[in-house]
Design a protein that fits this description.
Helix content is about 55%, strand content about 5%. Helix 1 crosses helix 11 and helix 2 runs antiparallel to helix 8. The longest helix is centred in the middle third of the chain and has 17 residues.
Length: about 300
């Protein structure tokens, strides 16, 4: 495939991007456990839940422990949801653990314990949204779907649209562009989804893009335009210290480490502000991550 060089002010065609990105991926893709054949569809699904808003380095040890303990959805479904929360450890956003447990139960009950390959059936599972359904169908089953995570959206925003960052929330225009960029052949489309994601994770990063290593730098609309600074809505930060998220994490840590129900006094000791502490605990209860018991005791959900 012969690439036609882009010039400033033009959008690179899909065919100009496919070959160099796929060739780069062939040489630079990380050897990650969920990319290996033995991971199967369940391993891919677990990784997709864990990787949402969480870097690979933090996910790897938890992922390996998780799959060793629950190698199939039915293994997880047979346990109380609180065990999923306990095993989630400090990955953050622990509601993902409950959603993954719920998906495992549904897979066991509806699909005989096998992660479905049909996109609509994946989307019908609890806790599965557009992105995760497309990712599992693509990465586990080699299907042709637009897989739009933060990394892919950033690559497309820069290389094709010519802006530094994509919008805060995925737009219809982004989905349309992603569909237009998909290679026609299913297997190639699945590799393209993984390759564009890896390019955003390793090279076209949010803060330190490395254009010298980018296989499509010569075609990148943003670079050719002189890398204009972001002029859209302010990008959401990831503050943690002093937030309710931090308090929730400390409360959950006490519950995860306890062999049984925990007294209120043990939870009171983890945070100095009683109002914020009570608000965080109420939020955990409302989210189904903590169960209140008689006598002012608390535990992880038993199902």
């Amino acid at each position: 495939m012969t690439a036609i060089p882009s010039t400033p002010g033009t959008r690179p065609a899909a065919v100009e991007l496919h070959a160099p990105v796929l060739a780069w991926f062939e040489q630079n893709a990380r050897d990650l456990p969920w990319r290996r054949p033995e991971a199967g569809a369940w391993g891919v699904m677990v990784s997709e839940f864990m990787l949402q808003q969480t870097p690979v380095s933090r996910v790897l040890p938890v992922y390996e422990q998780w799959l060793a303990r629950w190698p199939r959805p039915a293994d997880l479904a047979a346990e109380a949801p609180g065990e999923a929360v306990r095993a989630w450890g400090r990955l953050g956003y622990p509601r993902r653990a409950l959603r993954l447990h719920g998906a495992a139960v549904a897979i066991t009950e509806r699909h005989g314990g096998d992660v479905p390959s049909d996109h609509a059936q994946l989307l019908a599972l609890p806790g599965i949204g557009d992105y995760t359904a497309a990712a599992v169908a693509s990465f586990a089953y080699g299907q042709r779907h637009a897989v739009l995570d933060t990394n892919v959206r950033r690559v497309f925003a820069r290389s094709v649209t010519g802006v530094q960052y994509p919008p805060n929330a995925t737009t219809a225009a982004e989905r349309k562009l992603a569909r237009e960029l998909l290679p026609k052949e299913e297997g190639t489309a699945a590799r393209w989804a993984a390759a564009s994601m890896e390019l955003g994770a390793l090279v076209c990063t949010a803060r330190n893009e490395d254009c010298a290593r980018c296989p499509i730098a010569a075609r990148c609309a943003w670079r050719l335009a002189g890398k204009p600074a972001h002029d859209g809505p302010a990008r959401r930060g990831q503050t943690y210290a002093g937030t309710d998220r931090q308090v929730r994490g400390r409360l959950l840590a006490v519950l995860r480490e306890a062999p049984g129900p925990v007294e209120q006094a043990a939870l009171d000791a983890v945070w100095h502000d009683p109002v914020q502490r009570a608000r965080a605990l109420d939020g955990l209860v409302a989210d189904g991550l903590v169960e209140p018991l008689d006598g002012g005791r608390y535990r992880l959900p038993a199902g």
